[in-house]
């Protein structure tokens, strides 16, 4: 597992006060880099030239704007910090990011462009993306749960915006369903394939982004309860079943690497039909490797192991990328050697990057996390 060279570095030791002001632990003090201080480097063993190539090529290093949502919504009339889409996109481009994933299209009303949550606003956003050399990959929007004339019209508008921005993918940050019953996943798959076919007809890929709940086990076996529903499991995880029953050319997924690792702690066992407790720890890299074409996008979110007992809580706390215990170098390598050809779209995300007391923090951590993402070998 990778570690940073911090021991004995007087400059890093001197950054403790800044780390505290950002609400970061000693392990996270590297956020000081964005304030102009030295950035520790990833400790790496001597490697062959081939192995030394970056796992995430420069053109594929991205960010979901949820990580800097405070800056997007900041009022430029009350702050000198980057505010609104244009200023934030310019700053992200300066840092080095090349790919953008939107988390909706709302910004502060006083920011340049005002209300851009419409097709005309998308044209303005596209002009800024082009100006700063950025490529928009996707958006966490809304995928309707039902098919009606109204939801169809709304989805058509969603695709209009996506095509105006030049997106390759459209999706949502929600699971197709939170139910643990097979019939509900069958129904969700039917709806998703409907929208996926519409998206494909317009050159788009429809994707779902999932948290740990989607990796729980289906209740699809055993004695029935009073409502006639199964109470035990065959050991099939909900999202694995969704992959099995959906067309791989119509429905895609975005793996949040952090939440997939949390699922290892949350759902390590299931109760089989005969009542026995079966241990089956989730292996997210194996799932992706077996379904590589289904995963065009990834959230690169790091986690610090919390030391909680297995099966209790998340098992990880969200931290800036590169400061945690998720072995990204191994994970990205395991999902397929073709990523060295540049097909790995890695979007940095840190839910906790914004701070109510340190308004510059999210963009500081964006700089830090970009540098650490770029050092993956």
Short note summarizing the structure:
Residues 90-335 form the Xylose isomerase-like TIM barrel domain. With 377 residues, the protein is α/β, with parallel strands linked by helices.
List the defining traits of the structure above:
377 residues; alpha/beta; TIM Barrel; 8-stranded parallel β-barrel; 12 helices; disordered N terminus; isomerase activity; Xyl_isomerase-like_sf; Sugar phosphate isomerase/epimerase
Main sheet: strands, sense, barrel = 8 strands, parallel, barrel
Tell me the count of domains: 1
Tally of alpha and pi helices: 12
Give me the side-by-side strand order of the main sheet.
1-2-3-4-5-8-11-14
Calculate Rg over CA atoms.
21 Å
CATH topology: TIM Barrel
Mean pLDDT score: 88
What is the share of helical residues? 25-40%
Model description:
This protein has about 375 residues and is an alpha/beta fold. It has twelve helices and 14 strands.
List the helices and strands and how they pair.
Layout (H helix, E strand, L loop, with lengths): L9 H4 L2 H6 L39 E4 L4 H4 L11 H12 L3 E4 L16 H13 L3 E7 L7 H17 L3 E4 L9 H20 L3 E5 L11 E4 L5 E3 L5 H8 L5 E6 H10 L2 E3 L5 E3 L4 H7 L6 E4 L1 E4 L10 E4 L8 H7 L10 E4 L12 H14 L3
Parallel strand pairs: 1-2, 1-14, 2-3, 3-4, 4-5, 5-8, 8-11, 11-14
Antiparallel strand pairs: 6-7, 9-10, 12-13
């Amino acid at each position: 597992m990778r570690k940073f060279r911090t021991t004995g570095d007087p400059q890093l030791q001197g950054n403790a006060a800044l780390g505290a002001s950002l609400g970061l632990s000693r392990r996270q003090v590297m956020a000081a880099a964005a304030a102009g201080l030295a950035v520790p480097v990833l400790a790496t063993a001597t490697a062959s030239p081939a192995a030394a190539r970056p796992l995430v090529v420069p053109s594929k290093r991205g960010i979901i704007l949820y990580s800097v949502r405070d800056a997007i919504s900041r009022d430029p009339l009350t702050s000198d910090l980057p505010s609104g889409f244009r200023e934030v996109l310019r700053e992200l481009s300066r840092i080095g990011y090349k790919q953008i994933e939107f988390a909706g299209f709302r910004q502060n009303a006083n920011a340049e462009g005002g209300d851009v949550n419409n097709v005309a606003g998308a044209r303005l956003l596209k002009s800024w993306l082009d100006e700063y050399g950025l490529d928009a990959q996707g958006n966490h929007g809304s995928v309707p749960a039902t098919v009606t004339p109204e939801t169809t019209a709304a989805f058509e508008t969603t695709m209009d915006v996506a095509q105006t921005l030049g997106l390759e993918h459209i999706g949502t940050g929600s699971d197709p369903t939170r139910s643990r019953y097979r019939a509900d996943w069958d129904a969700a798959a039917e709806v998703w394939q409907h929208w996926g076919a519409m998206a494909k007809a317009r050159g788009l890929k429809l994707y779902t982004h999932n948290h740990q709940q989607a990796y729980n086990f289906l209740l699809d076996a055993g004695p029935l309860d009073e409502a006639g529903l199964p109470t035990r499991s065959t050991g099939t995880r909900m999202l694995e079943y969704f992959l099995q029953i959906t067309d791989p050319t119509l429905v895609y997924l975005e793996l949040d690497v952090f939440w997939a690792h949390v699922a290892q702690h949350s759902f390590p066992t299931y109760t089989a039909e005969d009542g026995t407790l079966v241990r089956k720890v989730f292996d997210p890299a194996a799932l992706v490797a077996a379904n590589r074409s289904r995963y065009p996008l990834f959230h690169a979110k790091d986690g610090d192991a919390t030391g909680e007992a297995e099966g209790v809580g998340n098992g990880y706390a969200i931290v800036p990328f590169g400061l945690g215990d998720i072995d990204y170098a191994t994970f990205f390598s395991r999902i397929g050697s073709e990523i060295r050809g540049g097909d790995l779209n890695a979007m940095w995300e840190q839910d906790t990057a914004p701070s109510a007391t340190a308004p510059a923090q999210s963009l500081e951590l964006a700089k830090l996390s970009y540098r650490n993402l770029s050092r993956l070998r």
